[in-house]
């Protein structure tokens, strides 16, 4: 049994001042994995002070010194990849293929940031000015529960590359993953205070990070609703804010698509991370003349998906993170039926044979119209809505008919046609005939899916501010 009672502040694990104790429940078995005592506002202030003390010296480190630190972190998290993977499977039910990939991706984040910094000109001349890119200052890195190690490491890598110290607040739903990751990062042996990590709730720890005058920058990943609260809280001290938020991504199947190659990608996009991914392609837009063919294909494919124990490498879909998420997804399936969508796979309740665990049936609706809740809201579970179109123009209109704009997918055998559609989609990223991300390209959302970009040069620049020194 885990008993987590410490935060990582100023280079050491210290008991939190907070007193709220929560149970960590394994979503696969509904058994208790352990307890965690949450940090409170006073802990957040201690962490901010530690980051602030370290900031002055850290801002003056050279490129080479920071690259060396990033390499140390890369090696440290690679050395703990198995623990990082297993903690994610235990705590939120991430399936093996996903958690295995993330456990490698986290070390790659540090390698990518090191390479980006190596190639990046921190000083340039513009007219009579010498323009220096300087660290913005102490950064608060706030992460969701559905991608703890990935989000924390990609943000931390960019912050360190830029010379910013950090206070990291993963979700209160992720104490176990946070503990494992904190130990891995600590083992890199960086000077105290460069990063500090605490688990607490949004309304106190998160709020303190969003308001404290010594925090210069917030890099947040989570829901649009929380992003709005953070942006409003941060404006008082004019914090720089990057927000990576909610999505409702469309997968567009153009009428020349080869379904045999596209189908596994479409289904993976829809149900990735047990349907709990910001970039999940949960609206499948299909040409009307191929609608029945696509419905039959997705039904047949879904029937082959194994839902169950996330430790099993053959499992495609594990449980949802907790009971609240299970009930939320059930409500959406119910709404889909109630509002007249045609249920073509799955439905209400657990999959047959699953008596325990927060498992839902992979569920597919056809005849979904743009005004239905299942077409508009991010459900965050394995629920796919199929919508028909008659022309590419109409497909673009449906895809863009959402307040979100994080990612979109286009499938076609004709590259230039797919490119033409991609150029008109309101999304920060458009994937053509693939779903694997390009980890050095900018990632972020349009519209209510966010502000700012992460990864590569754009991620680095989100922690830098230009200073012009103009000489006579
Ligand atoms: P959430 O918004 O509920 O919580 C995210 C984080 O914000 C948590 O650490 C939480 O404790 C904290 N928080 C909550 N209230 C706060 C406040 N008032 N001030 C400061 N911090 C506060 O999101 P979640 O349920 O953890 O994650 C799921 C959401 O995240 C989904 O909407 C998903 O699409 C989104 N997400 C987006 C991306 C992306 O890159 N765009 C990636 C992963 C997840």
Protein topology:
Blueprint: E1 2-4, E2 6-9, E3 12-15, E4 21-25, E5 32-37, H1 41-59, H2 63-79, H3 81-92, H4 96-119, E6 123-126, E7 129-135, E8 139-142, H5 148-162, E9 166-169, H6 175-186, E10 195-197, H7 202-211, E11 217-221, H8 224-235, E12 240-244, E13 249-253, H9 259-271, E14 281-287, H10 291-304, H11 323-338, E15 342-345, E16 363-366, H12 373-376, E17 383-389, H13 392-400, E18 404-405, E19 407-411, H14 415-423, E20 429-432, E21 446-447, E22 450-451, H15 456-461, E23 464-470
Parallel strand pairs: 1-5, 8-9, 8-11, 9-10, 11-12, 13-14, 13-19, 14-17, 16-17, 19-20
Antiparallel strand pairs: 2-3, 4-5, 6-7, 7-23, 12-22, 15-16, 18-21
Radius of gyration: 22 Å
Listed once per kind, the bound small molecules are:
nicotinamide-adenine-dinucleotide
- The number of distinct helices, counting runs of at least 4 residues, comes to 15
How many domains, as an integer?
Answer: 2
Strand portion? 15-25%
Q: Do you know the CATH architecture of the largest domain?
A: 3-Layer(aba) Sandwich
**Under the CATH scheme, which class of the largest domain?**
Alpha Beta
What share of the residues lie within helices?
40-55%
CATH third-tier fold name of the largest domain: Aldehyde Dehydrogenase, Chain A, domain 1
Average pLDDT reading: 98
Runs with pLDDT <50, length 5+? none
Question: How many beta-strand runs?
Answer: 23
Which sheet architecture does the biggest sheet show?
7 strands, mixed
Describe the oligomeric state of these chains in a short phrase.
single chain
In one word, what is the shape? globular
